[in-house]
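FAQ: What does the model actually see?

It sees only this:
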Amino acid sequence: MPSGCDGCPRKAKARGFVPGFGEITEPKMIILMEQPGENELVEGKPAVGKTGYHTDKALGGYRDGVYVTNVRKCLAPKESSEVRRASIQHCINAYLQPEFNKLAPTGPKGLLLMGADAVQAVMHRGNMAKLHASQWTPEEVAAMVRASTHPAMTHISGDTDEPV
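And it is asked to produce this:
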């Protein structure tokens, strides 16, 4: 684990480290997801495997100009709400804020938040079920931030052509 992980409450049980990937110089969009899965650990990139399949499908197979990253950079077993919140805050400070600072000068046009951890990290709101059809503050609308369920949750839609 990188030195930035020192002090993270999930470090002892975490596996792997997956940095962000994609267009760094002039990203048109940043996709922020929750945490890597098994496929991401193997390939060392975010949004591969089933998640990547659904992400690519949603983007029309076009990832040019897109930077994809996770709130939490490692994979760990389920943890308490307290550890979850603390690990999110740790990753924001150690990794996500520096990543966004590096990307911000180019002014990406969009930020897609996929999953509750991503929404919590950026908007300080949680519980995706409560966010659907919720009222957004004028500041949130002005920033054009939108939230989505995580691509792995699309099994509800009945897609049958997805990889196993």
